Amino acid sequence: MAQKLALFVAFAIFQAIVFAEDYIVGDEMGWSTGVSYEDWAEGKMFLVGDTITFNYPQGQHNVVKVDGSGFKKCQEEPNNGTLTSGADKITLATPGNKWYICSVGYHCESGQKLKITVYESMAPSPALEPMPWPMPEPAPAPAPWY
């Protein structure tokens, strides 16, 4: 039984890795001012295990994870960490709402902010038990009645 459980867990992890999406925030526009990230996120289903990548010219923007209040107020939280590489990849590790802003100048106030909802990854169906081998012989047909 322990072997079956270990195999199931390994399969679930493998599926999450294989089927995880990498979303480029803003697609070809990247992480910049003048882009509606609300429109960009609409219709996308972000799952645990997916990644989001923020592409932007290094030094012109940044990425700061905030809470809902910080998102509304365009206010970064102390000690939350600011990403500045220009190709910042974030793995969505837990379900729930996630908020990101650019804290450079008035970029956030100009709309450079992203809110997404992350859902639990879809678990694969449990494996069916194998059929016993050899298969039992079918019962003989009843004799006809005359």
From TrEMBL:
Keywords: Copper, Disulfide bond, Electron transport, Glycoprotein, Membrane, Metal-binding, Signal, Transmembrane, Transmembrane helix, Transport. InterPro entries: Cupredoxin, Phytocyanin-like, Phytocyanin_dom. It is found in: Membrane. It comes from the Eukaryota. Gene3D superfamilies: Cupredoxins - blue copper proteins. Residues 21-120 form the Phytocyanin domain. This is Phytocyanin domain-containing protein. GO terms for cellular component: plasma membrane. It comes from Amborella trichopoda. Residues 1-20 form the signal peptide. It is a single-pass type I membrane protein. The lineage of its organism: Eukaryota, Viridiplantae, Streptophyta, Embryophyta, Tracheophyta. GO terms for biological process: response to symbiotic fungus.
